[in-house]
Specification:
The structure is a single chain. This protein has eleven helices and seven strands. The protein is globular, with a radius of gyration of 17 Å. Helices cover about 45% and strands about 15% of the residues. Helix 2 (about 65-80) crosses helix 3 (about 90-100), helix 4 runs antiparallel to helix 7 (about 175-185) and helix 5 runs antiparallel to helix 6 (about 160-170). With about 260 residues, the protein is of the alpha/beta class. The two termini are about 35 Å apart. The protein has helices at about 35-40, 65-80, 90-100, 120-140, 140-150, 160-170, 175-185, 190-195, 215-220, 240, 245-260, and strands spanning about 5-10, 20, 45-50, 85-90, 105-115, 200-205, 225-230. The longest helix has 17 residues, at about 120-140.
């Protein structure tokens, strides 16, 4: 049984396709605040806190991406949202890929932001396990201090940095560790991308060190019908660092999906 997820549900059902926003690690749904504000004026926007993050239940142990995807499916069933555009950033993008593998018929478009589809390397699995151990031992603050200026660019706005740091330090270590252990075991989604039958938008910050532009270009090449947008002046979280540019790209994509209904 999936836990009841905390979520924000804004805007009204209308002729526009609903938008579902999946946050990355170690954040919560408020990382999407600029997008919720912008797009709830014209469509229904749903942004959950993943299990182990934000106000959702914390489940220690290991949380595979398949469990995150099942939680989202259960939430959308409960909210009676049949079809939608599904957007995710970083780990959220990998959850989007898992969702497409599980219930493709419900998804009208994919937004893959600052993410990558490959399975974890042996070295990466060890690193994620070691980080999970560290977070359980030390808590989130030291990690948050270390990675802040990779999550967002060193030159990012001070308020954006404060928001990102606040999300990271508020995340329960047990939830973050469970996600790290589960994500270390994720499948390879590269072949899946070649079978996607809906439009996709691939977005990446030009200065992203975690998922560089080359990763986005490879996804764009693999997807049968995709648009690539590289956002200058941003690192791993262009939706917060450059919300105007991000929203422009997302808005154009949503308009295209709406036109295809």
């Amino acid at each position: 049984m999936s836990p009841f997820l905390a979520y924000e549900d804004r805007g009204a059902d209308n002729a526009s396709t609903p938008l579902v926003l999946i946050h990355g690690h170690p954040f919560d749904h408020t990382m999407w605040s600029p997008q919720i504000e912008e797009f709830s004026a014209t469509r229904r926007v749903i942004a959950p806190d993943l299990r182990g993050y934000g106000a959702s239940p914390v489940v220690p142990g290991i949380t595979p991406l398949s469990v995150f995807a099942a939680d989202i499916e259960a939430l959308l069933d409960e909210l009676k949202v049949e079809t939608f555009v599904l957007a995710g950033l970083s780990m959220g993008g990998q959850i989007v890929m898992e969702c497409y593998d599980r219930f493709p018929d419900r998804i009208r478009g994919l937004v893959l932001a600052d993410t990558f589809p490959a399975a974890e390397t042996a070295e990466g699995r060890r690193a994620r396990g070691a980080m999970a151990d560290r977070l359980l031992r030390e808590g989130m603050r030291g990690y948050a201090d270390e990675v802040l200026e990779k999550m967002v660019a060193p030159y990012a706005d001070a308020q954006v940095k404060a928001h990102v740091h606040r999300m990271m330090t508020a995340t329960p270590p047990e939830g973050a560790a469970a996600a790290l252990r589960g994500r270390a075991e994720r499948p390879d989604y590269r072949t899946l991308l070649t079978r996607v039958t809906v439009p996709a938008l691939v977005v990446v910050g030009e200065d992203d060190a975690y998922t560089p532009v080359a990763d986005a270009e490879a996804m764009h090449a693999a997807l049968p019908d995709s648009t690539l947008r590289v956002i200058g002046g941003a690192a791993h979280m262009p939706n917060l660092e450059r919300p105007g540019e991000f929203n422009e790209a997302l808005g154009a994509f949503l308009g295209r999906v709406d036109d295809n209904r």
